[in-house]
């Protein structure tokens, strides 16, 4: 028996830009597509696809857009991460907590302040059924090499 689930986790957060000392408002979505299979070659299997996309804008620490001419082109990002797990029986409880890694790059190709953002999401399963995912946090690093 195969069951499919879908979740969408919106993200809107001001993060520090460790490349410039400024801040970036990151807005986007992480979509989760969950498939569970019971009774195949593996007695219970679960696969999760995490697809993220969004944008970022230069802002002040309070989230106010920078509009004084010093702002750069907006950031854009997208990625996809796939996880899978097999079990000898349907587990009573288990959790997946992958970090979805995105590279925020300027839409105009400027590579001077690319950012690496890891989004931590907890996804808990009870008797093989996923609960709503929980956004645990974002970590940011300056990266000029995607």
Describe the structure.
This protein has one domain (2-142). A hairpin with a 5-residue loop joins strand 2 and strand 3 (44-59). Strands 1, 2, 3, 4, 5, 6, 7, 8 and 9 form a nine-stranded antiparallel β-sheet that branches. Helices cover 0% and strands 65% of the residues. The protein is built from no helices and nine strands. It starts with a strand and ends with a strand. The model has no long low-confidence stretch (mean pLDDT 92). By secondary structure, the chain is mainly beta.
Key terms for this structure?
146 residues; mainly beta; nine-stranded antiparallel β-sheet; elongated
Offer a quick outline of the entry.
This protein is an all-beta fold and 146 residues long. Helix content is 0%, strand content 65%.
């Amino acid at each position: 028996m195969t069951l499919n689930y879908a979740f969408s986790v919106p993200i809107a957060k001001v993060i520090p830009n460790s490349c410039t000392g400024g801040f970036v408002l990151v807005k986007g979505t992480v979509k989760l597509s969950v498939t569970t299979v019971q009774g195949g070659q593996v007695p219970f299997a679960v696969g999760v696809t995490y697809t993220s996309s969004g944008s970022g804008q230069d802002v002040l620490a309070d989230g106010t857009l920078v509009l004084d001419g010093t702002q750069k082109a907006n950031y854009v990002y997208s990625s996809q991460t796939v996880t899978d797990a097999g079990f000898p029986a349907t587990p009573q409880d288990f959790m997946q907590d992958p970090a979805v890694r995105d590279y925020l790059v300027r839409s105009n190709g400027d590579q001077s302040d690319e950012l690496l953002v890891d989004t931590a999401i907890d996804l808990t399963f009870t008797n093989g059924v996923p609960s709503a995912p929980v956004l645990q946090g974002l970590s940011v690093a300056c990266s000029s090499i995607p």
